[in-house]
Amino acid sequence: MFLIAYAVWITVTLFNYTYIKILLPKKLPMSDLLVYMQWAVCVLLILKFWDDKTYRLRNFVGIAIIFFVGYIEYSVKDKTVLLFMLCIFIYSSSNVDFHDIMKVTLAVEVVVLIVTVVLSLNGVIPNNIWDEGVRHRYDMGFVYCTFGSHLMLFITMVYSCIRKRLTFFETFVLAMFNLWLYSYNDTRLDMCIVIPFLIFLYVWTHFVRGIRKNFVTKAMFQYGGIIIAIISIAGHFFYNSNILFFEKLNSLLSNRLSLGHEAIQSYGFTLFGQHIQWVGQGSVKNNPQLIYNYVDSSFLKYTLNYGIVFMLLLLAGLVYIGGKAIEQEEQALCTSLLFLYVFAMVDAELCVLAFHPFLLKIGALLNPALEERDGETGR
User: Fold this and answer.
1) Taking CA atoms, which of 173, 211, 213, 308 is between 20 and 30 Å from 250?
2) Nearest-5° Cα angle at 20, 16 to 24
3) What stretch of H or E contains 275?
4) 3-state helix, strand, coil in the chain (%, to 5)
5) 259 found inside a domain
6) pLDDT tens-digit profile of 220-279?
7) Distance (Å, whole) CA 324 – CA 222
8) CA angle 33, 35, 41 (to 5 degrees)
9) Backbone dihedral region of 121: left (phi > 0), alpha (psi from -120 to 50 degrees) or beta?
């Protein structure tokens, strides 16, 4: 039941990132599909809770966190409630093998990517050109030109976690697919992540045996989310255009530092979040009268929007996932988490379930038996 609901949910969510949604009947807009899916998953949660034969304290804590996150999203007027749904899926995944979840994720993402790209190249859905002066970028059927490469990046990560140890041929093929998309959408960020990711994973899994459980390993993979979050938020907070280092780095990151610094000055940090009307490039492209107002760093964006308490809960979950990955000697998962954190410094997809399922690993915390079984599978 969970895997079916999960597959449908991420399919519908991913379609919302593509122009496939314009093919839907006018009587059934994408927003209605998302609402129907939210209600379906809520019913799943209720059935899941009452179907449990034991009610542990951790289950009730999980329920409390779900409604806490839901309250935050309601209070900041976030109508998407994507974080609320993420928490529901984390809770509901507590009796599902994580490797099955990754296989479903991979299948859905590959199908959506292939269908979207093929339809766009054949003129069934738009394949717009984003003219940015010297850069001409094709969106390949996605509502923004970076989303196709984002999806391919996470396909690469999920496939690597399933395979655990990529052959040279697999590594080469994955790199070529990413490069092919890059040749159309010119998304440099994803290429700067995926190529080092593939090289790092290949070298580590082929020339180093196992995971050495030392200070460096824990700092990188277990506490990497906390360290990178601090670096990211501090970089935006202390940004100063009069300092050459910051100015050069800001230029390299397409003004992300200055925009984040302005957001901190405008909104500040709160414990439980605040309503912020984000306006991205896609909205500005459709309506030039709008003023761009967006933060690309996941760590900063979530902290500003949903508050310090939510960010602390998220970081605690990332520490748990990283710790289990080290304990179970999941080299591919450790590598994926590390590069996910780096990616999250400059992009806002850290908590988007449709792109990656890694946060669902937290669900094992609610089921000690499954947690132990996952450990045996990881080895």
Assistant:
1) 308
2) 95
3) none
4) 70, 5, 25
5) no
6) 999 999 999 999 999 999 999 999 999 999 998 889 999 999 999 999 999 999 999 999
7) 8
8) 100
9) alpha
How far is the CA of 17 from the CAs of 4, 150, 220, in angstroms? 21, 11, 31
Tokens 């003129």 belong to 123
Q: Residue 184 corresponds to which amino acid?
A: Y
Which residues does 5 contact at the CB level (< 8 Å), separation at least 6? Answer: 37, 40, 41, 44, 92
Chain centroid, CA 361 distance in Å: 13
Please state the domain count of the chain: 1
Q: Which residue has the tokens 């709160």?
A: 270
Task: Provide the residue range defining the domain that includes 182.
Answer: 2-225+306-378
What's the maximum distance between 2 C-alpha atoms anywhere in the chain?
62
Tell me, yes or no, whether 288 lies in a domain.
no
Query: Once rounded to an integer, what is the mean pLDDT over residues 107-121?
Result: 96
User: Is 257 a domain residue?
Assistant: no
Mean pLDDT of 163-192: 95
Q: In this structure, is residue 117 part of a structural domain?
A: yes
- Given a contact cutoff of 8 angstroms between Cβ atoms, the answer to whether 109 and 155 are in contact is yes
Q: Kindly report, residue by residue over 311-328, the tens digit of the pLDDT.
A: 999 999 999 999 999 999
